[in-house]
């Protein structure tokens, strides 16, 4: 049975998810896709949530470590687009019962 990760590991994952979300929002702002500061805040929150979901998946399928931290940060950066790819892949794995 897997042990629950320690609090400092969870905080590191959350911080990297937030960082990935901020970078994603700032890149969108730099491209001119956001108009007001509230767009940046909302995009940061949504992308950070995406990073948290990626982090939870990483903690389940990958042992807690640098790889799961990188997966979390990448998930925060990818945002909703990354979530759609992740859910499609997980759906394929769960339906076909094959390994990732």
Salient structural properties:
100 residues, single chain, mainly alpha, flat
Please provide a written account of the structure:
Helices cover 80% and strands 0% of the residues. It is mainly alpha-helical. The two termini are 20 Å apart.
> What is the mean pLDDT?
83
Number of strands: 0
Structural class: mainly alpha
Share in β-strands = under 5%
Oligomer designation: single chain
Low-confidence stretches: none
The shape is flat
What is the helix tally?
A: 3
* Largest sheet features: none
Q: What sequence of helices (H) and strands (E) makes up the elements?
A: HHH
* Distance linking N and C termini: 20 Å
Helix amount: over 70%
| CA gyration radius, whole angstroms | 15 Å
Summarize the structure.
With 100 residues, the chain is an all-alpha fold. The protein contains 3 helices and no strands.
Question: Layout of SSEs?
Answer:
Elements: H1 7-30, H2 37-61, H3 66-96
């Amino acid at each position: 049975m897997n042990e629950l990760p320690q609090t400092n590991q969870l905080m590191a994952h959350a911080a990297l998810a937030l960082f990935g979300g901020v970078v994603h929002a700032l890149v969108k702002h730099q491209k001119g896709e956001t108009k007001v500061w509230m767009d940046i805040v909302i995009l940061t929150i949504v992308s950070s949530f995406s990073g948290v979901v990626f982090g939870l998946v990483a903690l389940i399928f990958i042992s807690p470590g640098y790889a799961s931290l990188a997966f979390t940060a990448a998930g925060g950066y990818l945002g909703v687009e990354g979530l759609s790819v992740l859910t499609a892949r997980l759906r394929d794995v769960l339906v076909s019962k094959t390994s990732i």
